[in-house]
Amino acid sequence: MSDGNLVLPRSFAFRETPPDGANDILARYGITSDTMTPDCNITLLRDGDRTILFDVGAGQEFMPSAGKLMDAFDTLELDVSDITDVVFTHAHPDHLWGVRDDFGDLMFPDATYHMGQAEWDYWTDPDTVSTIDEGRVTFAVGAMNRLELLADQINLFADNQEILPGVLSRLTPGHTPGHMSFEVQMGGEAVMIVGDSIVNHHVAFEKPAWLSGSDQDPELGAQTRLALLDQLSTAQMRLIGFHLPSGGWGHAERRGDGFVFVGDDA
Predict the structure, then answer these.
(1) Are the C-beta atoms of residues 232 and 190 closer than 8 Å to each other?
(2) pLDDT digits 0-9 by tens, 222-261
(3) Whole-number Å distance between alpha carbons of 187 and 46
(4) Which end is more exposed in the chain, N or C (fewer Cβ atoms within 10 Å of the end residue's Cβ)?
């Protein structure tokens, strides 16, 4: 389901100076202006008596182009009370801030919430707001304000756990300290929900070893990205990316010393 899109400066992806060839790669994907507008894709899984959201979008307090998830709910005739579980990849604003409604209450009051232990510990640590880089201080404050609402409904988990039937946690750190992806196994197929461990469909695939300004730990993020793309392409496993086109659905194919995202029509 779509939560809208972000509007980001090109520099957000490359820190201060783009690597040689970055502009050529972006141009091949039709990105020639100073801004990028990545999609925001929320994954909905219906399985028996469970209706599961993977991340909840940005809500109304992050940027005007995002926070559209309730429009998708209306289209599907889905009610917030139908959501039994919310699973977070990480606690950045476009993934977490939609957990609170316009009155400051939980948007999904009847749900059980699930977050990796390391991610929870980082964003609920009072020291994070003073140690995170200056450009992300609002991220830390916003996360703390929202996570405190979840304290009585949170299930914390580690790497390689089956957190729900057929939903396995896969630690993919770097974008944030405790970022999680999720391998969903249904029947004979597995799909990897990658969150922001692969944050775009162009540079992150073609040059996964390049450092990304969107990652809080760029070196670790690059290591994670390389390993994950190698795994996905070798296993020919479908993936769902939060900021990828085609609704996020697709798969990774090896191409030279990098990869390419091939979107599905699902």
Answers:
(1) no
(2) 999 999 999 999 999 999 999 999 899 999 999 999 999 9
(3) 14
(4) C
- Round to whole Å and give the CA distance between 184 and 166: 6
Contacts of 207 (CB under 8 A, 6+ apart): 19, 21, 22, 25, 258
Asked if residue 172 lies in contact with residue 195, where contact means CB atoms within 8 angstroms, the answer is yes
Q: What is the pTM of this model?
A: 0.96
- The torsion angles phi and psi of 167, rounded to 5 degrees, stand at -115, 110
Are the C-beta atoms of 165 and 52 separated by less than 8 Å?
no
Q: What's the rounded Cα separation, in Å, for the pair 19 and 15?
A: 10
Q: Is 181 exposed, middle or buried (0-12, 13-18, 19+ CB in 10 A)?
A: buried
Q: Could you report the per-residue pLDDT of 54-80, keeping only the tens digit for each? A: 999 999 999 999 999 999 999 999 999
What is the sign of the dihedral through the CA atoms of 227, 231, 234 and 239?
negative
Alpha carbons within 13 angstroms on the beta-carbon side of residue 110 total: 9
